[in-house]
Amino acid sequence: MTDTILNYVIGGCFTLLTSLFIYLTRSIKAIVSGTRAMLRYRIGYNCDYYLMLGCITIDELGELKNLQVPYKKLNGNGKIDIKLKKVDKLPIVTREELEHIKIEKFSK
User: Do residues 75 and 36 touch, judged by C-beta distance below 8 A?
Assistant: First the structure.
């Protein structure tokens, strides 16, 4: 009888742990997918913005490259790499020059 009870307890624990593992695996996949989507959106949006302006500051370029690191680790696709290569070719300007360019572009 003790063996039967022990088998039920062990079986129940195994079922509980399996369910917990499945739940955690699905949750982690959802978090990874969501994080990758947010990074793709943010990097893509910023790349398009600076490509439209025609220049970028060194700080902003560094931030984009910093965002690219986790995006690649989360198996992000190559579309962002293509946009970042285009942004890499933009002229580097100071923050003040960038503000002046924004005023010119958006005041028309």
Answer: yes
Residue by residue, pLDDT tens for the chain (108 residues) are 677 887 778 888 889 899 999 999 999 999 999 999 999 999 999 999 999 999 999 999 999 999 999 999 999 888 899 999 999 999 999 999 999 999 998 886
Contact 47, 87 (CB under 8 A): yes
Question: In this structure, what token pair is assigned to residue 51?
Answer: 């490509």
The pair of structure tokens assigned to 81 is 């790499």
d(CA 48, CA 83): 8
Domain region containing 54: 2-106
Q: What domain count does the chain have?
A: 1
